[in-house]
Amino acid sequence: MVVDDSAIIRGFLCRYLSEDPDIEVVTTANNGVVALRQLAANDIEVVVLDIEMPEMDGLTALPKMIEMVPDIQVVMASTLTRKNAEVSLRSLQMGAVDYVPKPETARSVNANIDFRRELVDKVKAWASRRRKKRGEELPHSDNSAGPGSRVASASGHAARVVSPRASSAPAGFVTARRPAAPVSVASARPAAAVDPIKDVPHQKDIKLRTGSFRRPKILVIGSSTGGPQALMKFFSGFKRAPNVPVLITQHMPSTFTAILAEHLGQATGWPSQEGRDGMPIRPGEIYVAPGGKHMEVVDDEGVMKIRLTDEPPENFCRPAVDPLFRSVASYYGENVLAVILTGMGHDGLKGSRELTRHGATVLAQDEATSVVWGMPGAVATAGLCTEVLPVLELGAATATRLQGGVG
């Protein structure tokens, strides 16, 4: 279900979602009151929920939706303002599963291919996770298969291929599972993009290695889809502030990263801030890569500092995990402890290879507690991890490693 008070925005969102053969837009609503009625009347797995709406806004509707359908997957959609960033991250604490930063205008929504890809990928990822928890089949499109036939998905689950249905909805409201006309170049998924359902590794293919016995001097963390919640759970495993600097690259736009840093500081009680160019890094403090910038470390006359760059995106992301991991590998070598949390794609894989080449230790979140086991699965199945653990245990294991080892 798409919930937005703008008919134009609803139309765009419905079109982008319905162009993917694995997604069906069941219904729409222009405010929270209508959305609750629609939720009661329809079988809905994922809600894309606007924040600012008349009669009942998204933040008011959110807990009511969860009360009606406890495992409903609600993805908040908001424009890139500080207020909306704060509300979006607060909604995660109230039960929303994710957010998508919505461009400011209808024109920019229509032109922004990154927004389209993120919207579709997150809807599919959260629907997939809900079905896994329920033990249900995952969607898997295959044009060569007939309606209702069964195929094996890349994740090893059987999947049902659903044939397109004729639409009986009013004009401007799309329900067809396949577009009636070829998808335009502007809306097509880039060839190298990752499908969050199909292109994931297998837990059975994990290959562990021996990590460094040196005491870590820096902790670096990479995360993406589901990352804000995973970071909160991860740090809850620490009984005291870390004795090393903590640098985090979370795939997020600008504005959101500053709010995330504030939330992490409130949750942990440790100094936490968005990284700034030239900022010295200190033990016991958290630095979050700002949206739109890659974050690295450099040695400035014996003082380790943050460097921000405008280098091209890597793995479709800026900030990306790989630049951070590469930079700490060259300066800290075997004294690096790296952690890969939930996220789609394989950002962090190349950086982890560089880290292990220098003798560093890499830990990863397991598949069961990851929203998408793409990033952690990539490093785990490449033989780069020393441990693969549930997120709560991962935090405790990390804290233990920071206190141990050889100096």
Write the layout of secondary structure elements.
Elements: E1 2-3, H1 7-18, E2 28-29, H2 32-41, E3 46-50, H3 58-68, E4 73-79, H4 82-93, E5 98-102, H5 106-111, H6 113-134, E6 150-152, E7 158-160, E8 218-223, H7 227-235, E9 246-250, H8 256-268, E10 272-274, E11 286-288, E12 294-300, E13 303-309, H9 321-332, E14 336-340, H10 349-357, E15 361-365, H11 375-381, E16 387-389, H12 391-403
Parallel strand pairs: 1-2, 1-3, 3-4, 4-5, 8-9, 8-14, 9-11, 10-11, 14-15, 15-16
Antiparallel strand pairs: 6-7, 12-13
Helix pairs in contact: 2-3, 4-8, 7-8, 7-12, 9-10
Task: Describe, in plain words, how this protein is organized in 3D.
It is found in: Cytoplasm. InterPro entries: CheB-like, CheB_C, CheY-like_superfamily, Sig_transdc_resp-reg_Me-estase, Sig_transdc_resp-reg_receiver. This is Protein-glutamate methylesterase/protein-glutamine glutaminase. Its EC number is 3.1.1.61, 3.5.1.44. Keywords: Chemotaxis, Cytoplasm, Hydrolase, Phosphoprotein. The protein is α/β, with parallel strands linked by helices. The protein is 33% helix and 17% strand. It is built from twelve helices and 16 strands. The strands form four sheets. Strands 10-11-9-8-14-15-16 form a seven-stranded parallel beta sheet, sandwiched between helices. A five-stranded parallel beta sheet has the order 2-1-3-4-5, with helices on both faces. A hairpin with a 5-residue loop joins β6 and β7. α4 packs across α8 and α7 runs parallel beside α8. It is globular. About 13% of the residues have low confidence.
